[in-house]
Amino acid sequence: MATKPEPIPSPAQGVGPIYRPDGEKPTATVSRDVSYENVHVLPQTPQLIALLTMIRDKKTGRADFIFYSNRIIRLLVEEGLNHLPVVEQSVTTPVDRAYLGVKFEGKICGVSIMRAGEAMEQGLRDCCRSVRIGKILIQRDEETCMPKLFYEKLPADIAERWVLLLDPMFATGGSATLAVEVLKNKGVPEHRILFLNLIASPSGVAEFAERFPKLRVVTAFIDQGLDEKKYITPGLGDFGDRYYTL
Ligand code: PRP
Ligand code: URA
Question: What pathway is this protein said to act in by its record (predicted)?
Answer without folding.
Answer: Pyrimidine metabolism; UMP biosynthesis via salvage pathway; UMP from uracil: step 1/1
